Known about the structure:
alpha+beta
Amino acid sequence: MLPVCPAQIKFNLFYIYRQAKVMNKLIYHMCHADEWEDAQKSGFYAGSSQDQADGFIHFSTADQVRGSAAKHRAGQDGLVLLSIAIDQLGDSLKWEKSRGGESFPHLYGDLLSSAVVHLEPLLLDESGHHVFPKSIS
């Protein structure tokens, strides 16, 4: 048995923890509930009409999704918020500069319904603003 160095163990544990955080990173997409119901039946989601016109499915990080909702989905009712694990999307996911020079995640291809790890209704408050879960910053 080889001797174990405490510094090496600490480094390995840090590396494993860091990898786990990266692997569990989520991105978000908002769509109409009926669009998602169709996706569940077929096993994939091809995106909204706007996504299809742009050639990719638009996603946002937790820090970006509120701004995306305000800009693209203001006042829209009947939406759901999809939480997607980045590690499920493979090489079809690209990070590209968009609004304000920020990098946004774009999926060039269909979203498999199995990549969605959580779904939540995106309700409106009394003033017509979307109410996001507490996990969204």
